Automatic annotation (TrEMBL):
Protein name: Cytochrome P450
Record has S-adenosyl-L-methionine as a keyword: no
Highest taxon above the source species: Eukaryota
CDD domains xref list: CYP71_clan
Organism, as annotated: Sphagnum troendelagicum
Amino acid sequence: MSHALVFLHLLHNIYNSWSFTSALALLCSFFFSGPFVSSSVSILNNYAGAQNSGFHVLSRMARKGLKLPPGPRPWPIVGNLPLFAGCSTHRRMMELNKKYGPLLYLRLGSRPTVVTNSPAIVREFLKHQDHVFCSRPPSSARDIMVYGGAGFALSEYGPHWRHLRKICIQELLAPSRLQRFHKDRHEEAQILVAQVLEIASKQAGQEVELRELLTTFTMNIATRMMMSKKYFSASAADVQGSVQEAAAFKEYLHVAFKLLGVFNVGDYIPFLKPFDLQGYERQMRKAMRKARTFLDVIMREHYEAALKARSCRTTSSGGGSSAAAVDADILQSAHDFVDVLLALPGENGAERLSNDTIQALILELMAVATETSSVPMEWTLAEMVRNPQMQKKIQEEISKVCGKDENGIESVVQESHLNELTYLKAVFKETLRFHPGGAFIVPHMSREPTKVGGYDIPKNTTVLINALDMGRNPESFDKPEEFLPERWLDTGNVDPLRIDPEMRSVPFGGGRRVCPGASLGQCIVTLGLARLLQAFDWQLPAGKDDIDMEEEAFGLTMSLVTPLKARATPRLPPQFYNP
Ligand code: HEM
């Protein structure tokens, strides 16, 4: 903080320009708080007050010749950043969209940005002009935490992205590959139910805190698929791999979830980047050092196993098999995603994918796959606790679809039942509308200048699609402020994976960047929910008359501010829980 002030005064002396220092003062008020800073800020603002009208010269010049969408006037250097001081970004953007219309233009530091909540405009971005808006904006998080975009979820559009996305869809997330991990998902769901039972059995009315359990469930599924390891467990004996490995990886993930979505001032005002005023880049580097050490171990283990497998296969074929045939064979029998990645060819004829690319893919997939699934599970359970009749409807549906075993006990829900659980799907779809995984979908960026709704959109404009606002749009939905899964039952469009042609809600994004893990995400979420709702009745904690449903946008995701606690009562005979 003191660095920021010294820097501010230095610049003030050098430039002696009222508007410049005022803008910086506002910038500091945005990013820092405390009495010293606020008093300095107010002094500097007073200096600058008389010059306000001059501020807009630059913005007018920037707009010259272009018909930009409406939006508040930007300040020099900081642009519209000060509008977001001390408030929730997505809520402020909602207000601005209300004031300026469905296509809002902002300048965040040096970055042109458009924000929308309108299905018609989203259709332009994700459908009609998807070829223009399919890139991603640069960020220090991408540079530091995913090896400068060596993966693909955050990388810019181009041959590298295309190559990796194709690999990901064909080799990692193909239904036949995912089917191989069916047993792992089943085991983790079993463990989830057992953990809730253990807590609930301690004493009648005991509350279960769900967030940690749900995160453990999704993370273990992801690490088992990716690297055949399980790092998260209530019992240390159940963890595979060293305790240090697990600790390093957990720390990385914790920091990554937060830092991949932070508003880092250096990304918006490039000349401030070297100062790392908020300390985010330092945190990112620290987390990355640990993640690298951890990933090097994983890679070495897998690499050695791959070499062994290769030499065994070559020897057993008497040297008769070509390298390509050996690779195809290894790919076919690969245990996990890292095995697959080590057997795949790289770009432009390279024999293998680079180490950085493989590590970036692991980190990106972990980041996009885990919280995106655990967060909607927590929201759905919160809604179920508040709506016992919906809970009952799901339980009745499960009983009907699963039937009973030879002892007359209800059969445990399996993945093969999920497709028939129509009401549960409607509930999940409603969760994605009403409580989307993130307030904004992952940002897109324009690759060339274009026009949308009659306005000019410059090249390299960041596109923010406010999923929360879209889901609550009264022009798109009747009673948008109510959680009503029934709204989907009559539409013939109950499947959350089916993209709404009108794009009234886009939980998995759209166009070339549409989420490639949507069906896996839906499988994990609905399996976990079905198991928890089949096994238990969920009620409000004793003495509470409602759940606190306030949301908090944290990094890439949007969760409940107050982690969900609820009472779980086993609802089936004891034999059900001890199969
Ligand atoms: C319910 C769970 C999930 C939700 C709600 C969700 C949602 C999203 C959204 C909104 C995007 C941005 C799309 C866009 O930019 O237009 C996205 C991208 C992505 N998701 Fe998911 N996701 C989920 C689960 C998963 C899972 C399980 C995986 C993989 C294992 C995954 C992998 C990805 C990847 C790799 C991208 C980036 C695609 C690209 O840039 O080309 N997601 N997801």
